[in-house]
Amino acid sequence: MKVRLLYADKDWKGVSSYYDCDSIVNDLWLTVLFQTATRDQEEREGAVLKAQEADRHLEDVLKKVMLAPLGTPEEIYYRQAVLQDFLGNEDFTKGLYGLSRDMMERWVKLGKNERDKPGAARERGIQMVSRIRQLHLFADTLSELKNLCRTHGDGFRSEGLRRFARGLWEEFSEEKEEKLRKVLEDIGFYCDGEGEYSLAGNGGKLVRQTRMVLGFSVENGLKLGNFKLDGLETVRRKLRRSGEKITFSEKMALAFASEPTTILKTSDLLEDLDRLENQVVEYVMGCFGPFMKDCRDFFEQLYFESAFYRACYNLYVRSRRTGLALCYPKVCGKDSLCYENLTEYSMATYRARIPVGNDGEIRGKTLLIVTGANQGGKSTFLRSLGIAQIMMQCGMFVSAERFESGIFPHFFTHFTRREDSAMNSGRLDEELGRIDRIIANLGNDSLVLLNESFATTTEEEGSVIAYDVIRALTEAGVKVLTVTHLLSFARRVCEEGRPEAEFLCAERREDGRRTYKMIPSAPQLTSFGLDLYDQIIPSSLGFF
Questions:
Q1: In the structure, what pLDDT confidence band is assigned to residue 107 with cuts at 50, 70 and 90?
Q2: pTM, whole model, 2 decimals?
Q3: Is position 52 within any domain?
Q4: What is the extent of the structural domain holding 330?
Q5: Residue 333 phi/psi, 5° resolution?
């Protein structure tokens, strides 16, 4: 049995992540999305009644999947189709994850993390009981999964979910389930003590015990050999210790009893019977070894993969409540970048309101330089591009009405950072060190986001460094999106008329108002820092 809801041809094992995931998470504020996805909010008539307790498993899974890029358009579209099925069926989404989570919790209590190991007969017996109960759990959960798919399967449109449902019916058909239930019933005597009760006054009791039919051969010396199990079932037997007095009425009851009656006369016989039963049960459970291994792998994958779609559903509900536009992005050439009403998803999620969106159609370019007024929304815009790229490359929706981009499995962010006690050198040295590590880990199809990089030195020196680094990157085939206040650098690239470069500018009205829109424009000669001076300084001094 295979889950295959994240990939069409493989499980979630050995999947590669981006280099320096911590920087990507911090620079793009992705922690906001991870934490939002942990809570299922109960609603009634559009109003939030209460938020459920955070599920940290959802956060962990969403982070891992978002930071592990898909490599082909087919993989992206496959996951998008599965996601659309989940988002369109709330009951199935919650039911599948809830079933897998509850199953996992019960499995842990039954000894999921314990390993079989040699030991005393009692310890081996306890391990065997645990395995039998786990097999019961697997059978019950598979049956519930089939019922869940039977109820909602008509609404499945994606290849992934259709194949998932079909696989359940093929690998755990009604016939196979019936046979498994029969075996579990037959070996029920080994771990099921239900139905035991004492007979009146004599210590005897009615219990579930085994009836075994064994075949064997008679060898030299009249020794028995070549044992073979021909039949096994659990029956009810009335057991009584030897030497106890039996009343006349009890003798008559035993004589006409429909259940077989066994008199245990010696402890040796009882021990031999116990050993024989243990060997038979071990043999039967050994036959189910491959099936149980498949079930373990299947349910571990299901718990992980269903968590990703459950987390996406929580984000989707939050986005719809905010009124945020969402779309499923398309893959295009690596030198193109097209977007309509693209918003910064982390900010929208955190503030629960819609930020200003941006539109753009950039084709045949591998270098995007964004300049313009301070506090004009440039960094926010760059984050919106980075978040959309990350979400596209993991098969998720994007906070835009339209988004098209290439696939870049090597994705890097280099945002300016505040100086803190953890730094053991100057800020410029720290920036250059991070750039050096990024360059050392570049590969085919790389994308680098630079936010106000190299601004920790003079404008002249920073412009020289930025020009040399970015020119080397683009000449090596790396796509670069940069926000900068290094106007000498931006003007130099513009004056050279380099065909791979595109320029945007943060729009500023004549009265100094920022629209937070990025518009096509050559680099301006100022970042309008005096606008901020006029706003902040007089008010701080008490002037009006």
A1: very high
A2: 0.84
A3: no
A4: 324-527
A5: -65, 155
